[in-house]
Design a protein that fits this description.
alpha/beta, nine-stranded mixed sheet, 11 helices, globular, binds adenosine-5'-diphosphate, binds 4-methyl-5-hydroxyethylthiazole phosphate, binds magnesium ion
């Protein structure tokens, strides 16, 4: 894959506003900084509309919901839509509770998303498919993830990225698979949430017609960074992997994307 967007992130240092969960806020901010973006974390309804005046990309992540936060998500999302700022949705653990499902329904009804990024269990739930989900983990199922990504992308007119051992990225018309990654990813919390924030940084420096390409590059860059981080480690050095991923997000370059990217178009 030829990199189109990574250098733009490092040149432009786009501000990325995150309404995210309490587990991952610090890790997501550090990952965005390492990549070359500028994180701002705030979920206060009193200020999220103002932030859109200077924002470049918005992340709405439902990992640890509270009712005032949902109000802030909808206000931030609608304001970002008015300002033509791309919005990324991470439907963390949506299948786990009725409140999460109701919140996702409201968000999808009120806010136009540029990208929905989640794991297989989360996207299967949004698509109304049977899946054995467990909390925030991907769970198990037999559904066709390519068909699910295409269907959700068409329904919400957005890019869908389903992460896992193979990532599936679709805008409904174009679909690609990213085979990079490492089994260490699901052993650290926040690796999916940071990927959603990284997707926001990539679409922030793209035109709307490039959102599919930008999301595909985001998933590829991120999965390669994980591979490179895991390479020198023993299989259970999860703490080292947590830190090494940040280092690799800072160090990764266009040549490595061309050399290591394993992407297929469906
Ligand atoms: N079994 C796996 N093997 C290789 N890479 C994986 C595996 N599971 C997830 N990944 C990678 O981990 C990153 C985070 O995705 P994922 O773990 O699916 O998110 P979440 O934390 O939201 O469940 C993605 O880059 C994905 O490609
Ligand atoms: C453990 C946990 N609980 C609520 S949100 C969260 C973090 C989930 O992060 P990720 O989906 O990136 O693993
Ligand atoms: Mg997740």
């Amino acid at each position: 894959m030829q990199s189109q967007f990574l250098a733009k992130i490092r040149q432009q240092n786009p501000l990325i506003h995150n309404l995210t969960n309490i587990v991952v806020a610090n890790y997501s901010a550090n990952g965005l900084l390492a990549l070359g973006a500028s994180p701002l974390m705030s979920d206060n309804v009193a200020e999220v509309a103002d932030i859109q005046q200077f924002n470049r990309g918005l992340v709405i992540n439902i990992g640890t919901l509270f009712s005032k936060g949902v109000e802030a998500m909808i206000l931030a999302g609608k304001t970002a839509n008015q300002q033509h700022i791309p919005v990324v949705l991470d439907p963390v653990g949506v299948a786990a509770t009725a409140y999460r499902r109701e919140t996702i329904d409201s968000l999808l009804a009120e806010v136009k998303f540029a990208v929905i990024r989640g794991n297989a269990g989360e996207l299967a739930c949004i698509a109304g498919e049977q899946w054995q989900s467990k909390g925030v983990d991907a769970g198990q199922g037999n559904g066709d993830l390519i068909a699910i990504a295409q269907r959700v992308a068409q329904q919400y007119q957005c890019v869908v990225a389903i992460s896992g051992a193979t990532d599936v990225i679709s805008n409904g018309a174009n679909t690609a698979l990213v085979h990079n990654g490492t089994p260490m990813f699901p052993k650290i919390t926040g690796s999916g949430c940071l990927l959603s924030a990284v997707c926001a940084a990539f679409v922030a420096v793209a035109n709307p017609s490039q959102y599919f390409a930008a999301t595909l590059e985001a998933c590829t860059v991120y999965a390669i960074a994980g591979e490179l981080a895991a390479q020198p480690l023993q299989p259970t050095q999860y703490g080292q992997f947590n830190m090494a991923l940040l280092d690799q997000l800072g160090a990764i370059n266009a040549e490595q994307i061309t050399q290591y990217g394993r992407v297929d178009y469906v």
